[in-house]
Amino acid sequence: xxxxxxxxxxxxxxxxxxxxxxxxxxxxxxxxxxxxxxxxxxxxxxxxxxxxxxxxxxxxxxxxxxxxxxxxxxxxxxxxxxxxxxxxxxxxxxxxxxxxxxxxxxxxxxxxxxxxxxxxxxxxxxxxxxxxxxxxxxxxxxxxxxxxxxxxxxxxxxxxxxxxxxxxxxxxxxxxxxxxxxxxxxxxxxxxxxxxxxxxxxxxxxx
Length: 207
Prior knowledge:
Elements: H1 2-5, H2 22-27, E1 36-38, E2 48-50, H3 56-67, H4 74-91, E3 98-102, H5 107-112, H6 117-125, E4 130-132, E5 136-138, H7 150-157, E6 161-163, E7 170-178, H8 182-193, E8 197-206
Parallel strand pairs: 2-8, 3-4, 3-7, 7-8
Antiparallel strand pairs: 1-2, 5-6
């Protein structure tokens, strides 16, 4: 009866009767050579790493989580982020104690989504010795970057990221999707200006 009222379907492929199917779980599994280093158009000055391309189940899950209220997908995506975080620690790219700082989001978007899913995912992915500080916010009247050209994204974000909580020590910036790198570059600049040591950016996906 519950399935008739609120039909279950996989957030990655739409398979009925399950919220997250084994096939999609395998698609998000972190391989031995992942996260991969990527080169966004705008260099943030720190390594940028991604868990995969913004396609297939990964893309569908991120969109469902952010735009369709599928908070049940925060867990599966956090599993991938946690595995990526452990891999970065094993490679020596990050060390504990470490602070995860979610990429900034617009307040209007966070209210519409019932909170920031990237922050929730970071909390779910944190391992011993790792804390989460949602220390960045977008200033008012920042446009949604969807549909903007690379140049427009850069102009839209410049000077629009602000620090809303003290952040110090070693930091890993966490994002859902890296496109041009504009948000990451501005976020890194703000964190470094505040005295934090930003080791890298880790994203679930890159476009």
